[in-house]
């Protein structure tokens, strides 16, 4: 299965909805999300660029370094497609999976607190 880079977002693009997700911290401290992106043309595994500290926990919406907005859907938990893309992306980055920290539970708790 091929892995590709997406074009930069256009101003006003709606958030990409991401389900079957996990959040993780790279060895350099950057946080990313991997999951299944729900697009107008279907679904696909995706890994975001680094998350900025511009989040809206009430709507589970995050902005990445590319300027794209993502909205997390549902609880954390990777699908097989998303797990495959995450593993391929990490290999391209030259990082072993054991060197990333899963921060999904912490982010999920923050989202739940932000919704109250």
Low-confidence residue ranges: none
Reported for the largest beta sheet, the result is: 7 strands, mixed
Average pLDDT score? 87
Number of strands: 7
Backbone CA Rg:
13 Å
Query: Which class of secondary structure composition applies to the elements?
Result: alpha+beta
Shape: globular
Q: Roughly how much helix do the residues carry, as a percent range?
A: 10-25%
Distance between the termini: 40 Å
N-to-C series of helices and strands: EEEEEEHEH
Beta-strand percentage? 35-45%
Number of helices: 2
Written description of the protein model:
With 116 residues, the chain is an alpha+beta fold. Helix content is 22%, strand content 35%. Strands 1, 2, 3, 4, 5, 6 and 7 form a seven-stranded mixed β-sheet that branches. Strand 1 (16-25) and strand 2 form a beta hairpin. The longest helix is centred in the C-terminal third of the chain and has 14 residues, at 80-93. The protein starts with 15 loop residues before the first strand and ends with a helix. The mean pLDDT is 87.
